[in-house]
Design a protein that fits this description.
Blueprint: E1 37-41, E2 48-53, E3 56-59, H1 60-65, H2 71-80, H3 86-91, H4 93-107, H5 112-119, H6 121-124, E4 125-127, E5 132-134, E6 142-145, H7 149-158, E7 175-177, E8 183-185, E9 190-191, E10 194-197, E11 206-209, E12 213-214, E13 217-223, H8 235-238, E14 242-249, E15 252-253, H9 254-260, E16 274-276, E17 281-282, E18 290-291, H10 310-315, E19 317-318, E20 321-327, H11 329-333, E21 339-345, H12 353-361, E22 372-377, H13 389-392, E23 400-401, E24 407-408, E25 416-423, E26 431-432, E27 436-441
Parallel strand pairs: 6-22, 8-16, 9-27
Antiparallel strand pairs: 1-2, 1-5, 2-3, 3-4, 6-7, 10-11, 12-15, 13-14, 13-22, 14-16, 14-17, 18-19, 20-21, 20-25, 23-24, 25-26, 25-27
Helix pairs in contact: 2-4, 4-5
This protein binds calcium ion (CA).
Length: about 450
């Protein structure tokens, strides 16, 4: 069974507890109840593990040196204090939850540990705005699912299929193996890719900058302990293989994609850059935002038994808002805020995180600590929640109007896309994942 600890509510979720870190009080992204894990460099320092708290970052190595941890929490903090979090992810949920509880105690205003930590706060905390964030883990493999059913449906409509979803969609959590080498942390710019594309339906292909550059509003899932090759993870235990979540932008060159992907799937259209938000928001932090997997519409098949677990169906999904915002160079010049182009929710995923893990490993594939999954684009059923420009612009036929008066069908050079998640529920502290931002640079010009 998946351990209760990633679902259970304890003192770390208590909205009435306050931190001695002033900026954390009422913080809408990183309050005391969130405590996500990441890797950062303070000014002039080397990369190291930390925990976001308000506008600050707790340095786990410095906290270790002050003797703030013991037992399982000590083990987890030691594994998380270095340049990557892979060793900590490998430990699984027990030590991770112990670390969360110990960090919570150290950052709480009315605990003995909190008083000890506060007395040496200048050695423990760094101003987040002055730090550089890094990828939280060395990513061995990256897999992108297709679990956003409204996105899949809209894609089928664009291809004018009489029945928009392909026959396998409701049986198989469809995915492809992506490219780990080009996954970058939020804030890293990306070049518009060059590739083969046909500029008119009846024209031969030409090589050059993509003219249909798009974003995809996705959830990222960080793998914990992993499994041995040849030993599938059962659906009942699969939920515990996910350590935490982030936001993920699967940048896509639609013109390259439509030409190249028959019959083997996306290749250069997707592998030039994938952006993730820097913090691993742990499953235990998200316990208050768990919901039942929304019921399948009448007539849909039951998942096959290796994908069906009563407990996973009862609480394996999340009610968390997600959004995509667009800002252009002209908007930034005019000091206009980024414009929200999509508002959706994780509840629109057709498959749960546990089903993705169970399916991925069902044939014997081994997952490793620090592997990354993308959920697939999470569109809402209504247009205001479509999670890509391909859907929002009807494949380039409908222009989006921006507050600057500019219009967009596809991304232009200088455009910046920001993805965010907001977890909100009455009686609990609101928390976020941190921004997933990337700005488009002009294509590489061969010299
Ligand atoms: Ca995708």
């Amino acid at each position: 069974m998946t351990p209760e600890s990633i679902f259970s509510l304890d003192e770390t979720h208590d909205a009435d507890r306050a931190s001695w870190v002033e900026s954390a009080r009422g913080h809408q992204v990183f309050p005391l109840q969130n405590l996500p894990l990441g890797v950062f460099s303070p000014p002039g320092g080397t990369p190291r593990g930390g925990v976001a708290i308000g506008d600050e970052i707790l340095d786990l190595g410095a906290a270790l040196a002050r003797g703030l941890f013991e037992g399982d929490a000590l083990r987890a903090a030691q594994a998380a204090a270095g340049r990557t979090l892979n060793d900590m992810l490998a430990l699984g949920s027990g030590p991770r939850v112990a670390l969360r509880r110990a960090v919570h105690a150290a950052l709480c205003e009315d605990t003995p540990q909190g008083r000890t930590a506060r007395a040496c706060s200048d050695t423990l905390l760094h101003r987040a705005a002055e730090c550089t964030m890094h990828l939280p883990a060395r990513i061995g493999d990256y897999t992108d699912f297709y679990a956003g059913i409204h996105h899949a449906y809209n894609g089928g409509l664009r291809h004018k299929r009489p029945s928009p979803l392909l026959p396998n969609y409701k049986w198989v959590p469809v995915a492809y193996h992506g490219r780990a080498s080009s996954v970058v942390v939020s804030g890293t710019a990306l070049r518009r890719p060059n590739g083969q594309r046909r500029l008119a339906d009846d024209a031969p292909p030409a090589f050059g900058p993509s003219v249909k550059l798009d974003f995809e509003l996705e959830l990222g899932l960080w793998i914990g302990p992993g499994n041995a090759r040849g030993e599938p993870v059962s659906i009942a235990r699969a939920g515990d293989q996910i350590a935490g979540l982030c936001m993920l932008n699967d940048w896509s060159a639609r013109d390259v994609q439509s030409w190249e992907m028959q019959p083997l799937g996306p290749f250069l259209a997707k592998n030039f850059t994938t952006t993730v938000s820097p913090w691993i928001v742990t499953l235990e932090a998200l316990a208050p935002f768990r919901i039942a997997q929304p019921a399948r519409p009448d007539g849909d098949p039951q998942p096959l038994s290796y994908l069906l677990d009563r407990d996973d169906q009862a609480r394996g999904a999340f009610d968390i808002s997600i959004e995509a915002c667009l800002s252009t160079a002209a908007m930034r010049e005019q000091r206009l805020p980024a414009h929200r182009v999509s508002l959706s929710n994780l509840r629109h995923l057709y498959w749960t995180a546990a089903q993705m893990v169970a399916h991925h490993t069902s044939g014997g594939c081994n997952l490793q600590p620090g592997d990354l999954f993308g959920s697939g684009t999470i569109s809402a059923p209504e247009r205001s929640g479509f999670g890509s420009l391909a859907e929002l612009s009807d494949d380039g036929r409908t222009e989006l109007e921006l507050p600057s008066g500019e219009r967009r069908t596809w991304l232009q050079d200088g455009d910046e896309v920001t993805l965010r998640a907001v977890a909100r529920r009455d009686g609990y502290a609101t928390l976020g994942f941190g921004d997933c931002v990337g700005r488009v640079l002009p294509a590489f010009v061969p010299g």
